[in-house]
Amino acid sequence: MQSIVNTFGRVLRRSLKSLPPLQPHRDLRLQLAWNYTQLGLLLLPFSSLLGVLACLVGAIMVWRQRFRQMITQPINWGFGLLSLLMLISAALAHLPQDALLGLFNFLPFFFGFAALSELIQTPAQLRRLAWLMVVPSVLVVLIGFAQLAWGWLGHQQIVHVQILWIVIDWVIDPNGTPPSRMSAVLTYANVLANYLVITFILGLGLWIETMLGERREARGKGLGARGWGLGKNGETADQSAICNLQSAISNLRFHKILLTSAVLLNVAALVLTNSRNAWAIVIVACLIYGLYLGWRWLLLGAGALAGAVLGAAFAPSPIREGLRAIVPAFFWARLTDQLYPNRPIPTLRITQWQFALSLTQQRPWIGWGLRNFNPLYEAQTHFDLGHPHNLPLMLLCETGIPATLLFLGLVGWMVFRGLVLLWSFNSSRFPLFSGRQGSRFQRNQRRDRLILFSFLLAFLSNTVFNLFDITLFDARMNLMGWIVLAGIWGVSKREEGGRRREEGEMRKEK
């Protein structure tokens, strides 16, 4: 195990050396805030305290620098109104103290989101954020493998790693949390699964970008004699330029190896989390990447895998039996619930969702208060579940219909604007993403379009995951989700502002 960790340490050091230690920001006044955000995101999986605190410090700096601009933005007015509705709901809650504590899962993140969406302005920053999420996931996964290996070797003692009380506080059960399911440094297997869904999708996007970049560089190397000004015999070659090209190719190859390892490790860990939601989301994400890129092999591979597992679980006999001879029972038995038979009725999601809808009908306007679902459900069923395993339903029953619709409307609008920007990439209306056909700018445009697509896919996948489970109670997952959304909105907002300025200048010229 020690040799694996040492190997990863060497790979991590080389990876970080190949990237700027701290990416510069286009606005020097926001550089320190951007530095804190990068550092916080890098530390986030391993320390909730350090990661959230660093990002919070960065957010406060942005608020101090851009307060006047930020309070004029309608999206921030919307979150201000949403905060007010949640405060009213908490004050009138069934259990007000629990509801007030529940506000900490939302209000600080609204504050941070407003700042981060002002801080993140370019596709290059999205790319940097993706790297800062993907690289640490390798160490998280290795810790998860060590966790299960420790249990498989017969060790039963829980490992508690604690530094300075809460700076680092890991409780790692060698049997898994819950048993036989990988959780690593996160609190629960489903939380780890949600984390890996995000890092896998972003890692796959970076891997695709690196693969395409390596092909372009290889073509450039093949045309080196013409491209770098060689004479007939090569005697006037610009050796420095050729060395730079070779260095770029070497760097791309290292990135390809690192990202290939990260993606494969993420997939293996996703399997070991035993999360049906994550499995389905990842397969669909691969299909969407295949459609986006026109890669038939990816479409066929993901489709065949999904078809085989679903067939082994639900196909009619004798097809089902034939597929079960090929597909491990670990997969199809999980889908059919044969791994966990005879579960009590209150533990089923449909039961929890019905109860949440019943609570909504009783108090539709202000809800019962955040964190009030669990005590009400426990009083009714004598089962302690924590939440209804569906974020919109939780908000409906705990904050009321108006607050929930406002929350969904704000998030939906930002995702819609990101999709509009993605669709309009080739339009001259968006100056950052437009370029001359075949030029270097056009190649950068394709890379930028891919990273925005990856962020949109990661956020939508995270959203779908939270339709069947809720992971925002872990501050790390909560912050990661808001950072991904802030990246989408920050880039979209800047492009919309640039378009309006261009239109204003054109009107003045006329």
List the helices and strands and how they pair.
Layout: H1 2-17, H2 31-43, H3 48-70, H4 74-91, H5 96-102, H6 107-119, H7 123-152, E1 159-163, E2 168-172, H8 189-222, H9 224-227, H10 239-273, H11 276-293, H12 296-314, H13 319-324, H14 329-335, H15 349-362, H16 373-381, H17 391-399, H18 401-423, H19 440-465, H20 475-509
Antiparallel strand pairs: 1-2
Describe this structure in words.
The protein is an all-alpha fold and 510 residues long. The protein has one domain. 70% of the residues lie in helices and 2% in strands. It has a two-stranded antiparallel ribbon with strand order 1-2. The longest helix is centred in the middle third of the chain and has 35 residues, at 239-273.
Please bin the fraction of helical residues.
Answer: over 70%
- Average pLDDT figure: 86
Q: Total number of β-strand segments?
A: 2
Structure class: mainly alpha
Low-confidence regions: 222-237, 428-441
Q: Write down the secondary-structure element order.
A: HHHHHHHEEHHHHHHHHHHHHH
Biggest pleated-sheet summary? 2 strands, antiparallel
Strand ordering within the main sheet: 1-2
- Our count of helices gives 20
- What Rg, in angstroms, do the CA atoms define? 25 Å
**What is the molecular shape?**
globular
Distance between the termini: 69 Å
What amount of the residues lies in strands? under 5%
